[in-house]
Amino acid sequence: MFRKHLGLVTAGTAALMLLTACGGGDSDASGSSDGVQKAAGGQGGFATSVTLIHDKNFAENGSSGLKGVGCKNVKFDNAASSLQAQGSIIIWTGANCTGSSKKVQGNILDLGTIGFDNKISSVFFGPKAEQPATGGSSSPTGGAKTGSAILLDDPNDQSENNVARGVSGAGCNNVPAPGSASAIVHMSGPARVWDKANCQGEVRVINTNTLDLGTIGFDNKIASIRFI
């Protein structure tokens, strides 16, 4: 990545100022997608690069670029207020394409108009960015898997006296009573769990029932989950 100062430009000339740089690793994590947002300068197909600009209206205050295919983490987290892209991309609030997401196409003069001002942490490039969003949860590299599990308040106790809370669904799911689970049982399959809502923060992969989450350093930490 690199920084480059940009002068104030119009939406018509902004597409000529595309910067590129390498980003982070691939990921299949998912969040919520609210539909395709189109702005001046957009083109068909998916983009393979984007310029993230720190101020609205492409004003001069620094910028960074990303390019490639797949999920890329940004250099300056939560800093972009406008962007330039020749095609469609998916922008995410969390690193590694986690959290809330939105498909966008073309240049965006003010990310605040789509609720993403100073919120971009990662970007997905690829064919999935071309497809119209249908609402609800989505995954940029494939359909979100539906699953279920039971969270228990106390470790090593599956009796009826232990408080149990169910969680199920596709994509990223915030759990009931976050930060209270000491065990996870009756898992339909593997899952990723995070210590913050919306699949952000510290993460663990749990492949099977775990009667004591303290053994993986996650006692009283689970706030969200995604079945994989």
Write the layout of secondary structure elements.
Blueprint: H1 11-14, E1 31-38, E2 49-53, E3 63-67, E4 70-73, E5 82-84, E6 88-94, E7 98-105, E8 122-125, E9 137-138, E10 146-152, E11 164-170, E12 172-174, E13 183-185, E14 191-196, E15 200-206, E16 224-227
Parallel strand pairs: 1-7
Antiparallel strand pairs: 1-9, 2-3, 2-5, 4-8, 6-7, 6-8, 10-11, 10-13, 12-16, 14-15, 14-16
Core attributes:
elongated; six-stranded mixed sheet; about 230 residues; Gamma-B Crystallin, domain 1; 2 domains; single chain; mainly beta
Detailed description of the structure:
It is built from one helix and 16 strands. It has two domains: 11-138, Gamma-B Crystallin, domain 1, CATH 2.60.20; 146-227, Crystallins (Gamma-B Crystallin, domain 1). The protein has 228 residues and is mainly β. Strands 4-8-6-7-1-9 form a six-stranded mixed beta sheet, with no helix packed on it. The chain has a four-stranded antiparallel beta sheet with strand order 12-16-14-15, with no helix packed on it. It has a three-stranded antiparallel beta sheet with strand order 3-2-5, with no helix packed on it.
Give a quick rundown of the structure.
The protein has 228 residues and is mainly beta.
